[in-house]
Amino acid sequence: MKCFLLLVLVIGLDLSSANSIPSYNHYRLPTALRPQKYYLRILTLLESPDDLRFVGNVQIVIEALKNTRNITLHSKNLTIDESRITLRQISGASNKDNCVSSTSVNPTHDYYIMHTCEELLAGNVYKLGLPFSADLTRQLFGYYLSSYKNPVTNKTRWLSATQFEPSFARKAFPCFDEPGFKASFVVTLGYHKQFKAISNMPVREIRKHESLQNYIWCEFQESVPMSTYLVAYSVNDFTFKPSTLPNGALFRTWARPNAIDQCNYAAEFGPKVLQYYEEFFGIRYPLPKIDQMAVPDFSAGAMENWGLVKYRESTLLYSPNHSSLADKQDLANVIAHELAHQWFGNLVTMKWWTDLWLNEGFATYVAGLGVQKIHPEWDSRDKSSLVALMASFRLDSLVSSHPISRPIRMVAEIEESFDAISYQKGSAVLRMMHLFMGEESFRTGLKEYLKLYAYKNAEQNNLWESLTTAAHQNGALAGHYDINTIMDSWTLQTGYPVLNITRDYSAGTAEITQERYLRNSQIPQADRVGCWWVPLSYTSREENDFNTTAPKAWMECSSTDEGVPTIIDHQAGPDEWLILNIQLSTPYKANYDARNWKLLIDALNSKEFESIHVINRAQLLDDVLYFAWTGEQDYETALQVTNYLRRERDLIPWKSALDNLKLLNRILRQTPNFGSFKRYMKRLLTPIYEHLHGMNDTFSSMPQQDEVLLKTTVVNVACQYDVSDCVTQAQAYFRRWRAEANPDENNPVPLNLRSTVYCTAIGQGTEEDWNFLWTRYRKSNVGSERQTILSTLGCSKEVWILQRYMEKSFDPKSAIRKQDSSLCFQAVASGQVGFLLAKQYFIENVELIHKYYYPQTRTMSRLLTPLSEQVSTLSDLKKFRSFANDSRQLLKGIRQAMQQSLETMLTNVQWMDWNYHQFSRTIRRHL
Ligand SMILES: *[C@@H]1O[C@H](CO)[C@@H](O)[C@H](O)[C@H]1NC(C)=O
Ligand SMILES: *[C@@H]1O[C@H](CO)[C@@H](O)[C@H](O)[C@H]1NC(C)=O
Ligand SMILES: *[C@@H]1O[C@H](CO)[C@@H](O)[C@H](O)[C@H]1NC(C)=O
Ligand SMILES: *[C@@H]1O[C@H](CO)[C@@H](O)[C@H](O)[C@H]1NC(C)=O
Ligand SMILES: *[C@@H]1O[C@H](CO)[C@@H](O)[C@H](O)[C@H]1NC(C)=O
Ligand SMILES: *[C@@H]1O[C@H](CO)[C@@H](O)[C@H](O)[C@H]1NC(C)=O
Ligand SMILES: [Zn+2]
């Protein structure tokens, strides 16, 4: 082994300290060259803990489109053996050797530039060979190291994994690392024969290593043309569970051997949803096989690499004895998301990261359809739509939000795009389109688009063209409308509108105006500009049609992009309510005149409240609580709406309300008037808590699965507000668990109550309780259970325990994996005592935290959310502002997230200034 390494004559190349002035400084690669094919050989050394590294050689077949004297590609933290670079012309009249005369680097854009001896000529094809090597690090990006403990031998087992999206293939091998440079890949992996290897494609051939004893080379079949960020491989000692799909691709689910029994659900669900997409998109899954793999250390939730999808353990592995229904639904959603990418993203890829939302919005939206199809009994589609809408409403009401389609000039900016705007708002605007165009046009347009751009790259305009054609053909859109104009107003502009609806009660009409909705009420009217093309769907009490989501009218924008006030003729009688936005099909907020709100409030607070569609009940709650926050409505009106929740028995409105009320809780629990709020919440929650039999284990008799989730959701808040017997029951369950002789085998706490029980017991509990749960974490073999425990360990109210827990979270030597550290911090920071500590800890230890995540400091943004929701005093806001300023350098990677957090904090301070007293007076009237 050593001897092999000695053969390599290494010329160290320190990219970071290169001080040559870059001659090419554009953020995109030159377009003179196009890679056609990569032959990638990588030898991975995993046997000795002191020598974990890889040694590789890549041969790239490159077509010259223009004459050029240099080859510029990406390479980051790779040691390239410059003495052995080869370059040869392999086409044209005379195949002849060329060479590299000198090299330079541009560390800003990770460029590695080779100046060629002879000019490369347009039309010719060349083969470039680059030998390289690097250490396998524990960074979770590029080609990296993961590990797990074999429970029998108690030995650490090493494995390697890749994570290349968006721009880390360049850390694994030199390449043209932009999504537009699609090429085919022939991957060959070398490794000790005790391991196995998997990659995008099936194995073609295995042969002995030419010199290293006990080493083999495993060559995989040539891939279809694809982007570098989708390349994947892994060397490991995992086992797999096969699935069989009639006439389908070979489908396998991989995990470490002692977790293989948790693969059954994924192995069953994956192929079903894959088959659904084949029908939905009208295109067969193009590869001969697909593997899904649970990686013990994984930063994202999952990654859609073509033919080799990688997951966290908690998003792929399911244990009937340890995972809750919510866990199961989450993992179904993640699998459905990644498999949707096999078409949207892998087959047709965005030209540039500006259109990342096309990938992510689609996968998010279509996953909801896939899960609904395979598990109709969960009835989860409306819930996932609502979750997407609520997340985008929240972030997108900030001035510091950004458009869905976002110019990208730096790698760091690409990473910032993986947020709620790309995923959830992207999904919401696609759903809007689906609902206003109708099933037929939407599907036809999509299929056409996928067919046109298969194995190529596309931009959003390409999609709009296909959809416009389909919609016109189907008559789903008037001839003078095009999808382009409509959708540009949603994807190129930041934010979303609020519609003011003013009824004329005698004429049966209403006037509608629009402006941008902002949570920061200090922003003057003049800055709330913008115009959105809004499909107007509506119904009244009499008509009661909540099925038709096709618009009855459109709100248009003038040629100067100003909103044109629109009159609709709705024909609702003067005593009937009117509701806009059927099933919340378009992401906007609707504010009515006082009389219509009164009619709606009366309907909600009557036996007929269910005559309003369940999603629209969620909409009314969400809208009115936003409006009360920003002053368009008062809290009297808002509380008259929320009062009806005493009748509500459906999950979706509860989710909407609780999400909003949680924000009030986070601020109010730090004030002397929290008592009234708590009494109000108890009053709202008691009827449903009793209705669901509280903490009693009634799950086996529940006919509806969504009732399980409702119960999980309700008991969780009920215990926080000390409703009924919630806390005492939770403590009793926990005591029974602690009394078990073998608590790792026997857990008497009902699966779907565990999170609530642990959190409540730890919150009220002793050091022994905490240590008991920590030991269960250490012994658990199930990813979702480990996550549940980590997030409930933060529920303690003991300062020293929380302090110790936070320190563990950022200690590389502790039992907490780097992938989970943000979860632990969030858990602490979400608690009322924990918040005070976490705030302090973050400010005082930002250097340590930065170092812990470096170079992936972007992960730090996950720590900000719970802090920003709770900072509500001017002095804290000032502290954070000056902290953000003083630590600019360390916070560089999370600039956007920091701005958004500061703005959220500001809106909290505004709430205290303007609403606190009004709210406190009002809520007392409702007790
Ligand atoms: C490499 O060649 C391209 C295309 O000919 C050119 O745009 C670029 O400036 C060159 N880069 C360097 C570092 O000379
Ligand atoms: C990249 O390599 C250089 C030199 O080998 C090293 O100093 C630097 O820390 C590395 N950066 C990362 C992010 O690993
Ligand atoms: C496994 O190793 C750890 C630490 O080295 C030790 O504390 C533990 O007792 C060992 N367990 C078994 C089952 O050998
Ligand atoms: C909408 O109504 C709000 C509150 O009544 C008002 O402040 C705003 O100016 C109105 N906007 C438009 C565009 O009419
Ligand atoms: C709306 O759709 C549901 C389910 O598809 C159906 O049961 C109901 O009858 C429809 N209502 C109207 C008014 O069309
Ligand atoms: C739970 O069950 C116990 C015993 O049957 C009963 O006394 C209690 O009222 C139940 N709690 C709720 C909230 O239904
Ligand atoms: Zn995705």
Automatic annotation (TrEMBL):
Topology relative to the membrane: Lipid-anchor; GPI-anchor; Single-pass membrane protein
Domain Aminopeptidase N-like N-terminal, first and last residues per copy: 35-230
Location (main, coarse): membrane
Catalyzed reactions per annotation: Release of an N-terminal amino acid, Xaa-|-Yaa- from a peptide, amide or arylamide. Xaa is preferably Ala, but may be most amino acids including Pro (slow action). When a terminal hydrophobic residue is followed by a prolyl residue, the two may be released as an intact Xaa-Pro dipeptide
Active site: 338
Binding annotation for substrate: 165, 301-305, 858
InterPro entries, per the entry: Aminopeptidase_N-like_N, Aminopeptidase_N-like_N_sf, ERAP1-like_C_dom, M1_APN-typ, Peptidase_M1, Peptidase_M1_aminopeptidases, Peptidase_M1_dom, Peptidase_M4/M1_CTD_sf
GO biological process terms held by the UniProt record: peptide catabolic process; proteolysis
Keywords, sorted A to Z: Aminopeptidase, Cell membrane, Disulfide bond, Glycoprotein, GPI-anchor, Hydrolase, Lipoprotein, Membrane, Metal-binding, Metalloprotease, Protease, Signal, Transmembrane, Transmembrane helix, Zinc
Subcellular compartments: Cell membrane; Membrane
Domain Peptidase M1 membrane alanine aminopeptidase positions: 265-490
Record protein name field: Aminopeptidase
